[in-house]
Amino acid sequence: MGSGAGVSGGLRVAADPATGVAVVTLDRPDRLNAIDLATARELGDRWRGLRFDDSVRAVVLTGAGERAFCTGIDRDTRVPQPASPYMVDDPLLGIGPKANDLWKPVIAAVRGMACGGAFYLLGESDFVVADTTAAFFDPHTGYGMVSAYESVLMAHRMPYGEAARMALMGSAERISARRAYEIGLVSELTEPGGAVAAAVRCAEVIASYPPEGVQGTVRALWAAQEGARAAAFAQAPQLIALGNLPPERQAELFAARRAGGHRVR
């Protein structure tokens, strides 16, 4: 990716060569920034492209619109699965910066909902800034699905009990921005609409430092938990294959629960 601005598919990217900061925006607000297969591929392409763009030294990741940062995989996306429980095909596994060998710092700026598959992105961001409208939840269990990769990533970003409660309570409960800040998932809390600006301010500071030291630090931080994460990920395909209801039954539960209420804590 070169400097300047670009729009392609479900992403919008703007880079400022004067500061060394790029803002990557999930740009599907009509779908609550849910990720379809084209957007998943484009995210991987963007992260890999940033490895070669020396004008970008820090990245802010956010979502378009006021309602959501990201709501995971688009429910209209159909991904055929191998018959073997050892070869689950998860198109979101490659959407994060670390999965694409990008060791430039990535700061997530969250407004509105961040749920389910959004945790693939939050889990591979270096820290999270959110405004007071942000809410975090994991709907998998209520739809007859195993929260595997998402729970592993969040268990490395939150106290275990909080990650477990979020995963097990499903759509019945959402973690408020304030609570997310209190437990350390969010590092800075802003007024509504202020998350991107705050994240950019942090990114500009980081981008002003020598990139070799910054990138080495990002790599060291990831290495601190990489082994445990890889071991847990190795269990995920079998757990998903054994625990997920058939897709048609998941769809029925999804339709039935869309009108259901939830509480925020």
How is this structure best described in words?
- This protein has 265 residues and is an alpha/beta fold.
- Helices cover 38% and strands 19% of the residues.
- The chain contains eight helices and twelve strands.
- Strand 2 and strand 3 form a beta hairpin.
- It is globular.
- The N and C termini lie far apart (40 Å).
- The relative contact order is 0.14.
What order do the helices and strands come in, and which of them pair?
Elements: E1 4-8, E2 11-16, E3 21-26, H1 37-50, E4 58-63, E5 68-70, E6 106-110, E7 113-115, H2 118-123, E8 127-131, E9 135-137, H3 149-155, H4 160-169, E10 173-176, H5 177-182, E11 188-190, H6 195-207, H7 211-243, H8 247-257, E12 263-264
Parallel strand pairs: 3-4, 4-6, 5-7, 6-8, 7-9, 8-11, 10-12
Antiparallel strand pairs: 1-2, 2-3, 9-10
Keywords summarizing the entry:
ClpP/crotonase-like_dom_sf; 265 residues; seven-stranded mixed β-sheet; 8 helices; Enoyl-CoA_hydra/iso; Enoyl-CoA hydratase/isomerase family protein; alpha/beta; 2-enoyl-CoA Hydratase, Chain A, domain 1
